[in-house]
Design brief:
The complex is a heterodimer of chains A (about 110) and B (about 120).
Chain A lengths: L3 E4 L2 E5 L4 E7 L6 E7 L6 E7 L4 E4 L2 E6 L4 E6 L8 E7 L9 E2 L3 E6 L1
Parallel strand pairs in A: 2-11
Antiparallel strand pairs in A: 1-3, 3-8, 4-5, 4-9, 6-7, 7-8, 9-10, 9-11
Chain B lengths: L3 E4 L2 E4 L5 E7 L5 E8 L3 E10 L2 E4 L7 E6 L2 E6 L8 E8 L10 E2 L3 E5 L1
The chains are: A mainly beta (about 110), B mainly beta (about 120).
């Protein structure tokens, strides 16, 4: 089955700087990679996703890049703000079905004012 | 009101007790899931259901059972709770492939402590 590794487990960034979280996956057939953000006391919420037919996707200050050859994908947050402080989870699946979605172990991002 | 509601939000119980966590949704989704979150382990799938008559085991189903009482309701039971089932539990829904989004919608979680 799929194995998704996520690094780092914690990340502190000065407000206004950029943050990068990286994930690697093992199943070369994986074709859908979502990122979820979990704020304190709440459930995870989808913030961006990418499919294997594209290499990069942007949505305002967040972007995700995918390198299929190396089997890794990354979340980039620019111009970080205090509300970006949260736990971020990457995930991957090979059949677009959530029943096969494998999550990474999470990154706790702290934005330092 | 939340689209995916979990009850209770917090529960402390003792080893050997039966516990039920309930989930209801107003999103009209067919697919429902139960996940467990542990520090350093991320989210792991316990059970999932694609419709009322469909129940499937996930990655870590041992020690758990589920019931899909209606399209909108999906409950998770621990027949005889043990301390290593202490965790944060999440219910989630998705619209299924015909809606082609893949997005999971999570409840706010149920924190269970087994003493």
């Amino acid at each position: 089955g799929e194995n998704v590794e996520q690094h780092p487990s914690t990340l502190s960034v000065q407000e206004g700087d950029s943050a990068v979280i990286k994930c690697t996956y093992s199943d070369s057939a994986s074709n859908y990679f979502p990122w979820y953000k979990q704020e304190l006391g709440k459930g995870p919420q989808l913030i961006i996703d990418i499919r294997s037919n594209v290499g990069e996707k942007k949505d305002q200050r967040i972007a995700v890049t995918l390198n299929k050859t190396a089997k890794h994908f990354s979340l980039h947050i620019t111009e970080t703000q205090p509300e970006d402080s949260a736990v971020y989870f990457c995930a991957g699946t090979s059949n677009f079905g959530n029943e096969k979605l494998t999550f990474g172990t999470g990154t706790r991002l702290t934005i330092i004012p | 009101d939340a689209d995916v509601t979990q009850t209770p939000r917090n529960r402390i119980t003792k080893t050997g007790k039966r516990i039920m966590l309930e989930c209801s949704q107003t999103k009209g989704h067919d697919r429902m899931y139960w996940y467990r979150q542990d520090p350093g382990l991320g989210l792991r799938l316990i059970y999932y259901s694609f419709d009322v008559k469909d129940i499937n085991k996930g990655e870590i189903s041992d020690g758990y059972s589920v019931s899909r009482q209606a399209q909108a309701k999906f409950s998770l039971s621990l027949e005889s709770a043990i301390p290593n089932q202490t965790a944060l539990y999440f219910c989630a829904t998705s619209g299924g492939p015909e809606l082609d989004t893949g997005e999971l919608f999570f409840g706010e979680g149920s924190r269970l402590t087994v003493l």
